[in-house]
Design a protein that fits this description.
Blueprint lengths: L1 H16 L11 H20 L23 H8 L3 H11 L10 H8 L5 H8 L4 H10 L2 H21 L1 H30 L5
Helix pairs in contact: 1-9, 2-3, 2-8, 3-4
């Protein structure tokens, strides 16, 4: 146990003495470019107006529908070349809410997108299950599509307006994710070498 504590202390000290290329309050130019691209792709997705739907044409809150139409966040992953992540989610839990993701390759993509965790949840929430149920009860396809379009327009405006404040948050989230991964890797290495016994 003492060896684990010593190793974690050393790891934390190394992380503290080797900062990333930007401090948490600076704007990471790579994240800024990715964020701008995500916002542009989201706009193009919204303009196209093709959203996941069920067999009756009602909007569906899934990563990808039966016709292969992706939700806004799945589309951003696809456009960034990560069809593997889209396929992973569709196979494992097509109704996954990204707000619930806090580690793994999906989270790595999220923290490198230039969007904050809260912003990703906002974009994905274009059509919540509760909204779908309400609209289904009213049987208003046009209203449902308008609801999705209105949410995406709001998300685009919010993302553009919040860029200056959100990029430092995105950088901090990315740094925290990298630190957590380094700790996990070190612990796994210690466990596999028998050091933790």
């Amino acid at each position: 146990m003492m060896k684990i504590l010593l190793s974690l202390t050393v790891l934390a000290a190394c992380a503290a003495t080797h900062p990333t290329t930007t401090t948490p309050n600076e704007v990471d130019p790579i994240l800024a470019v990715r964020r701008a691209q995500m916002i542009q792709w989201l706009h193009e997705y919204d303009v196209a107006g093709v959203y996941p739907t069920d067999d009756t044409g009602m909007p569906l809150s899934v990563f990808q529908d039966a016709r292969g139409v992706r939700c806004p966040m799945a589309e951003l992953m696809h456009r960034s070349g990560r069809d593997d992540l889209v396929a992973m989610v569709v196979h494992a839990n097509n109704a996954l809410r990204l707000a619930e993701v806090h580690d793994g390759p999906l989270y790595d993509w999220m923290t490198s997108s230039g969007l904050t965790h809260d912003e990703i949840a906002m974009v994905q929430g274009a059509m919540s299950f509760d909204t779908i149920k309400t609209i289904e009860q009213l049987d208003q396809h046009v209203a449902a599509r308008g609801e999705v379009h209105g949410h995406l327009e709001t998300a685009q405006v919010a993302l553009r307006v919040a860029t200056a404040q959100a990029l430092p948050v995105a950088a901090r989230e990315r740094a925290a994710a990298r630190t957590r991964q380094a700790v996990k890797t070190t612990l796994a290495s210690l466990q596999s070498s028998g050091t933790t016994r």
